[in-house]
From TrEMBL:
It holds the Pfam family dCMP_cyt_deam_1. Converts 2,5-diamino-6-(ribosylamino)-4(3h)-pyrimidinone 5'-phosphate into 5-amino-6-(ribosylamino)-2,4(1h,3h)-pyrimidinedione 5'-phosphate. Zn(2+) binds at residues 54, 79, 88. Its EC number is 3.5.4.26, 1.1.1.193. The lineage of its organism: Bacteria, Pseudomonadati, Pseudomonadota, Alphaproteobacteria, Rhodobacterales. It catalyses: 5-amino-6-(5-phospho-D-ribitylamino)uracil + NADP(+) = 5-amino-6-(5-phospho-D-ribosylamino)uracil + NADPH + H(+); 2,5-diamino-6-hydroxy-4-(5-phosphoribosylamino)-pyrimidine + H2O + H(+) = 5-amino-6-(5-phospho-D-ribosylamino)uracil + NH4(+). PANTHER family: 2,5-DIAMINO-6-RIBOSYLAMINO-4(3H)-PYRIMIDINONE 5'-PHOSPHATE REDUCTASE (PTHR38011:SF7), DIHYDROFOLATE REDUCTASE FAMILY PROTEIN (AFU_ORTHOLOGUE AFUA_8G06820) (PTHR38011). It comes from Roseivivax jejudonensis. The gene is ribD_1. Pathway: Cofactor biosynthesis; riboflavin biosynthesis; 5-amino-6-(D-ribitylamino)uracil from GTP: step 2/4; Cofactor biosynthesis; riboflavin biosynthesis; 5-amino-6-(D-ribitylamino)uracil from GTP: step 3/4. This is Riboflavin biosynthesis protein RibD. The keyword Hydrolase applies.
Length: 366
C-alpha cells in the first residue's frame, strides 16, 4: 500500500474517532487522533465530553513511550494557545512525535497556522491536505460558528406523501414508522441541541431526548418561545434539572414566568424580535455565543418556515411515509411568502434511502 493510501486510511480512522465526540465536545470541535509507529497503531483518542481533554493528549496518554518517533494523524490542526489546558502542539513535541498529518489549518484565529508553525519550528514534519473534503464536512458546524457566529442547522421534517404532519384534527402519532423514529434519535445524538418552537412544545409535549440508544449524553433541549408559553407541567419542565432546557424568549416574556422556569432549572436566553416573532438570526447567534455548533430543528411549521425564509437552514432531512392526508391535513411548513419559484429556498440532494416502510432523503443548501 502506498504512503498516500496509508495516510488516508489512518486519517479515516481518526475521523471515525472524531465522530464519537459529535454532540458532546461543544464548544470545542470534535477531533480524533491516531498515533502510528512502524505501521502499528500505538495510541488513539478523541475529544472528551465538554471539549477536554483534547484528542491529542488522550492519544498520547494511550501511546506512552511508544509515541516517540511516531506519526500523529489529527483531524484538525493541533492547538497552539494556552486555554484551560496546555497547547496540544507542545504535547506532541514533548512526546517525541516526528510527523503530524492533518487535513488543514484550524479556522479558529487563536490557532490558524500557529500550531503547524510551532511543530515545524521544533523539527516535526507537517503534512496537510489528507482527506480535507471529509474533514471539512465533519467540522462544518464548528467552522460556521467561527465564521458567522451561529450553529449549523439541520431541519427534520417527517410527513405524509403529500407533505402533511397531522390530520385536520391534529392526530400525528405516528405518520412514520418505528425504524424512522429510531433514526431520528440517532440524528439527535449527532447534534449539540434539539430545537423546537413553542407550538410543538405545547401540542406534542415532547421529551426531545435520545431513547433506544443506550446510555448516551443527551443534547441540550431548546425551545423558541417568545412569551415562554410552554406548560410548567410539561415533560421539558419536569426534567429540566436532569437534561438541560434552554428557552429563547422575547423581551416581553412575563417576569413571573421567567422566574418560574428559572426555578425549574431552565436557562433563559433573551432574544430581540423581528416583527411579532423572535428574530431567527439573533436567536441562532445567541446559541452560537453559548457554544453550540450543531442544532437539530424538529419544527414546528412556523419555526421551520421562519428559518428557511431567513436562509438559516443548512441541511434538510425528510422522512416521507406512504400515506396521504389531503388538503385538510396540517402542512409541514408554515407560510413562506413565496410568489415565484426563483424565490423558493433550494437544496441539493445528497442521500436517499429506505428506512423501514418510509423514505429518508437528505438535502444540503446550495
Amino acid at each position: 500500500m502506498s504512503s498516500a493510501s496509508l495516510d488516508a486510511r489512518h486519517m479515516a480512522h481518526a475521523l471515525s474517532l472524531a465522530r464519537r465526540a459529535v454532540g458532546r465536545s461543544w464548544p470545542n470541535p470534535s477531533v480524533g487522533c491516531v498515533i502510528v509507529r512502524d505501521g502499528r497503531i500505538v495510541g488513539r483518542g478523541w475529544t472528551a465530553p465538554g471539549g477536554r481533554p483534547h484528542a491529542e493528549t488522550q492519544a498520547l496518554a494511550a501511546a506512552g513511550e511508544a509515541a516517540r518517533g511516531a506519526t500523529a494523524y489529527v483531524t484538525l490542526e493541533p492547538c497552539a494557545h494556552h486555554g484551560l489546558t496546555p497547547p496540544c502542539a507542545d504535547a506532541l513535541i514533548d512526546a517525541g512525535i516526528v510527523r503530524v498529518v492533518a487535513p488543514f489549518t484550524d479556522h479558529d484565529p487563536r490557532v490558524s497556522g500557529r500550531g503547524f508553525a510551532r511543530l515545524s519550528a521544533a523539527g516535526v514534519a507537517v503534512q496537510t491536505g489528507v482527506m480535507a473534503d471529509k474533514a471539512a464536512e465533519h467540522h462544518a458546524g464548528f467552522f460556521l460558528r467561527l465564521a458567522e457566529g451561529r450553529p449549523r442547522v439541520t431541519l427534520k421534517l417527517a410527513s405524509s406523501f403529500d407533505g402533511r404532519i397531522a390530520t385536520a384534527t391534529g392526530e400525528s402519532r405516528w405518520i412514520t414508522g418505528p425504524e424512522a423514529r429510531a433514526v431520528v434519535h440517532g440524528l439527535r445524538a449527532r447534534h449539540d441541541a434539539v430545537l423546537v418552537g413553542a407550538g410543538t412544545a405545547r401540542a406534542d409535549d415532547p421529551a426531545l431526548t435520545i431513547r433506544g440508544w443506550g446510555a448516551v449524553d443527551q443534547p441540550v433541549r431548546v425551545v423558541a418561545s417568545r412569551l415562554l408559553d410552554v406548560p410548567l407541567l410539561s415533560q421539558l419542565a419536569r426534567t429540566a434539572r436532569d437534561v438541560p432546557v434552554w428557552i429563547c424568549h422575547g423581551p416581553d416574556a412575563p417576569a413571573e414566568t421567567r422566574r418560574a422556569w428559572e426555578g425549574l432549572g431552565a436557562r433563559l436566553i433573551a432574544c430581540p424580535l423581528s416583527g411579532r416573532q423572535l428574530d431567527p438570526r439573533a436567536l441562532l447567534s445567541r446559541l452560537g455565543e453559548a457554544g453550540l455548533c450543531q442544532v437539530f430543528c424538529e419544527g414546528g411549521g412556523t419555526l421551520a418556515a421562519t428559518l428557511l425564509s431567513a436562509g438559516l437552514v443548512d441541511e434538510l432531512v425528510g422522512f416521507t411515509a406512504g400515506l396521504a392526508l389531503g388538503a385538510e391535513g396540517q402542512p409541514s411548513l408554515g407560510a413562506l411568502g413565496v410568489d415565484r419559484l426563483a424565490e423558493a429556498p433550494r437544496f441539493r440532494l445528497v442521500e436517499t434511502r429506505a428506512v423501514g416502510a418510509d423514505v429518508m432523503h437528505r438535502w444540503q443548501r446550495n
